[in-house]
Amino acid sequence: MEVRRQHLLVISNFALGALWLVAGAMEGNFLRVVFGSTFILVTFLMLLEHKFKDSETGRLLEMLCLMLIFAIILAGYLLTGTALLMVVSFFILGILALGLVLSYLIPKIRG
After folding, report:
1. Global confidence as pTM
2. Are residues 108 and 58 in contact, defined by beta-carbon separation less than 8 angstroms?
3. What average pLDDT does range 53-71 have in this prediction?
């Protein structure tokens, strides 16, 4: 049952992303293109999680995909000036900074 639910989630995320991407391209709405391409890349991340669980290649592909997602969102903000993309960009940067700080502090606290 759980596998079918995950397949349905992956298919629906990809379909939603593709619809937004195509609709945005046809209308000339760059914000929809950004959201559509982000949804497609998040779906790709979900597939990577299942395919490459603990391999070095999987981690590298995940990092490349995450950097690409951030680059798309940042480019969307710079090109459109939409406040929503600015908030998402700052949220992603904040989470990355928190992760870097915690990855430095936690070994120091334990050791």
Report:
1. 0.75
2. no
3. 83
